[in-house]
Write a structure and sequence with these properties.
Oligomer: single chain
Order of helices and strands: EHEEHH
Largest sheet: 3 strands, antiparallel
Radius of gyration: 26 Å
Number of domains: 2
Structural class: alpha+beta
Strand order of the largest sheet: 1-3-2
Shape: elongated
Length: 97
């Protein structure tokens, strides 16, 4: 009997069919995008969870806006406010005539 190191169980199978991993598997993480849970052998599931968490933190840090994105968004915001003001004036002048 060979033991698997990694096992994936879909959320549907886990909830609808009450599928459970074997006793020697520990829950490492849930993949929300793919709708499955990942299990590793008990000592390795802690390391896998830790690596998954570090990957999440790294991607979160990498995806923050750069200074150029902030400047572009700021200029677009000023232009949008100016456009709204011009439309408001146009509508006001149209009603007064």
């Amino acid at each position: 009997m060979g033991y698997k190191i990694k096992m994936k169980i879909s959320m549907k199978a886990r909830i609808a069919y009450h599928c459970k991993p074997p006793w020697y598997m520990g829950h490492a993480y849930d993949s929300v995008a793919s709708h499955y849970s990942v299990y590793y052998i008990i000592p390795l599931h802690i390391i896998a969870n830790w690596l998954w968490h570090l990957n999440y933190l790294w991607n979160r840090r990498r995806s923050k806006e750069s200074w150029i994105d902030k400047k572009v968004k700021e200029s677009m915001g000023h232009n949008y406010k100016r456009l709204q003001e011009l439309e408001r004036r146009k509508n006001y002048e149209g009603k007064s005539n």
